[in-house]
Design goal:
- The chain is α/β, with parallel strands linked by helices.
- It folds into two domains: about 40 residues, no CATH class; about 190 residues, Rossmann fold.
- Strands 3-2-1-4-5 form a five-stranded parallel beta sheet, with helices on one face.
- Helix 6 links the parallel strand 2 and strand 3.
- Helix 4 packs parallel to helix 5 and helix 5 runs parallel beside helix 6.
- The chain starts with a helix and ends with a helix.
């Protein structure tokens, strides 16, 4: 019944939107957008809506507090899209009384052009501030991520930032759990991320999640077993 109701709702909305041909065409366009257009849309969204700005400010503040006194900081960004967040973080770390740490940022995105833009902007800012900096781009969808490419090192303070991306990991793990395979738990990205966190248990600064509900409803099993769940984060935070 829920599926039928959803279809009727979609059909009714489509019928109403046809009263505005331009809007209807824009929302139902089949044209493949250019990567440059996607980047522009993301930039406009960031500039026009305060949600991401607030999420970035809170995330950066959590990182700064958790990484106090650390000499090597590794940030893993599961949704690299906007360099402004990490530019602000570099500036804040540079202002520390003890001086800036060595910073390594690993960005994950499925579009090379976005990663290239991030690399250029962040490297340029790090050079301007004279901060020891490394950028590790990973061209991949999050659900297809090869965890070895994160290149996490023992002894570095690690923070994982997931803005609007945690749901994809939970959904992926949920699908695997439905298959009920004995190898499912060790093939999921949730399991592999948990391994990464355990490797850095002694120096883990913080696990950051600024996600919103967007229609994904993972099972209780997948949510509780995820390394990004509140239960798991309590075990690994200092």
């Amino acid at each position: 019944m829920q599926r039928i109701a959803a279809y009727f709702t979609e059909a009714l909305a489509d019928r109403i939107l046809k009263a505005w041909p331009g809007l209807h065409k824009a929302l139902n366009s089949t044209r493949i957008t250019l990567i440059s257009e996607d980047v522009l849309v993301q930039k406009l969204f960031f500039e026009m809506f305060p949600f991401l700005k607030v999420a970035f400010v809170l995330t950066n503040q959590a990182v700064i507090e958790a990484m106090e006194g650390e000499k090597m900081v590794h940030i893993i960004d599961l949704n690299a899209a906007e360099p402004a967040q990490w530019i602000a973080l570099l500036q804040a770390l540079n202002a520390r009384p003890e001086g800036p740490p060595h910073v390594r940022i690993t960005d994950i995105h499925q579009q090379r052009e976005v990663l290239e833009q991030m690399a250029h902007r962040l490297t340029e800012e790090a050079e301007r501030l004279d901060i020891p900096f490394q950028f590790n781009p990973i061209h991949s969808k999050l659900e297809n991520l090869d965890i070895e490419k994160l290149r996490v090192k023992t002894g570095e303070a690690l923070a994982i930032s997931s803005v609007l991306q945690l749901h994809s990991l939970l959904a992926s793990d949920d699908e695997l759990l439905k298959k009920k395979s004995p190898l499912v738990s060790k093939s999921s990205n949730g399991y592999h991320l948990q391994r990464v966190l355990q490797m850095n248990q002694g120096t883990l600064g913080d696990l950051l999640e600024k996600d919103v509900a967007n229609g994904c409803s993972p099972s209780l099993d997948s949510a509780s077993s995820s390394p990004l769940s509140p239960t798991a984060s309590v075990k690994i935070d200092n």
